[in-house]
Write a structure and sequence with these properties.
Elements lengths: L4 E4 L4 H12 L5 E4 L3 H9 L3 E3 L5 H7 L5 E4 L4 H15 L2 E4 L4 H8 L2 H7 L2 E3 L7 H13 L5 E9 L4 H9 L5 E5 L2 E5 L5 E6 L2 E7 L5 H9 L3 E6 L3 H7 L4 H11 L9 H6 L1 E9 L4 E9 L1 H18 L5 E2 L8 H4 L5 E2 L1
Parallel strand pairs: 1-2, 1-4, 2-3, 4-5, 5-6, 6-15, 7-12
Antiparallel strand pairs: 7-13, 8-9, 10-11, 11-12, 13-14, 14-16
Length: about 350
């Protein structure tokens, strides 16, 4: 399997974390990035590297020759996803990324027919942001086949990377969507809240209208009415409601680059995640929940397991959600506690 995986965005926090996880498995990925920083990383990790940006389609195609799987970890995915998927279609490479917003899922799904014709799998959202939520949603629907509504909730304990913080804060007060009657309709951040309990922890989440699950869980479960909730610090909830935006601007424009790149190894070991899906009909509900490892570590494990299954093949071509691989995907990871 050596050198069949190309990590684009390898110099970022998540890129380095995932590359190290592959090396633990005896896999040597090709490290790819837009800048020469990747050359220092290839010396550090003893992996081959390539440098290319996404402005020249022919250049992307050239660098994907002989690759089986492209793992895109370079945000913003609204800019990087399309060029890489188009190149994968031409070269026959499977494609995954860790996009986590509904618009990014819709954009990737537009390539579904082309991916089927090319014989490649597309799985955006192959990290913590979608994998566990999609799988627990599918399991809840299996327990209650006639469910008409679905609520998906999650919380994280731990530090955030600069990239995540910038992505979250930049559009923190912008409207998003909910799934109602099978359609994506306008909804607003923190317009409602909900308390849930996982592994003995009581958590209060607010409505998160940007979640990828609003699209992916619709495909995975067939449920027409879906809401997504996330736990945020109080000051972030205020920003979601259009308050303290001066603080958002200060963080994004002035202070962000002074923050650590991401969690330390100690912080990774200490963090936790909590996920729940509640499928309901007019009479009852089915709840599936889990406690998992720290979010970035969880993402690396998700990417590892998805990559292994794609490389070992065969896999179904076209756009797939993480629920395609089922509960067994999570059961192969350390630190998963079903509740």
């Amino acid at each position: 399997m050596d050198n069949r995986i190309l990590i684009y965005g390898a110099t970022g926090y998540m890129g380095k974390l995932f590359a190290k996880e592959l090396l633990k498995q005896g896999l040597q990925p090709i490290l790819a990035a837009r800048s020469t920083k990747v050359q220092a990383l290839d010396q550090q990790l003893n992996c081959p590297s390539v440098i290319f940006n996404l402005d020249n389609p022919a250049d992307i195609v050239s660098n994907l020759q002989g690759i089986t799987l492209v793992v895109n970890l370079a945000g913003p995915f609204a800019k990087t996803q399309g060029p890489l998927i188009q190149a994968c279609l031409q070269t026959g490479c499977h494609y995954i990324d860790i996009a986590g917003e509904v618009d990014e899922m819709v954009s990737a799904f537009a390539f579904d027919d082309a991916a089927k014709q090319a014989g490649i799998m597309l799985m955006p959202g192959a990290g913590f942001g979608v994998v566990p939520t999609d799988i627990v949603a599918s399991l809840a629907k299996q327990q209650l086949p006639d469910a008409s509504t679905l609520k998906i909730l999650y919380a994280t304990e731990g530090e955030v990377s600069r990239g995540t913080l910038k992505t979250v804060l930049s559009g923190i007060n912008q409207p998003g969507v909910r799934r109602a009657g099978g359609e994506l309709v306008t909804a607003y951040p923190a317009e409602s809240k909900m308390t849930f309990e996982v592994a003995g922890r009581s958590l209060t989440a607010v409505y998160n209208p940007w979640r990828a699950d609003l699209f992916t869980a619709g495909l995975s479960t067939g449920i027409d009415n879906i809401q997504t909730y996330s736990v945020f610090p109080g000051f972030v909830v205020q920003m979601m409601k259009g308050k303290r935006l001066w603080l958002r601007d200060l963080l994004v424009n002035r202070l962000l680059n002074f923050l650590p790149e991401g969690p330390t190894e100690k912080q990774l070991a200490q963090g936790n995640t909590y996920v729940m899906a509640i499928a309901s009909n007019s009479f009852t509900d089915a709840r599936i929940a889990l406690k998992g490892p720290e979010a970035y570590l969880f993402t690396a494990l998700c990417l590892r397991e998805v990559s292994n299954r794609i490389l070992s093949g065969p896999v179904e071509a076209g756009f797939q959600t993480p629920a395609y691989f089922g509960k067994v995907l999570l059961d192969h990871m350390d630190g998963i506690q079903w509740d």
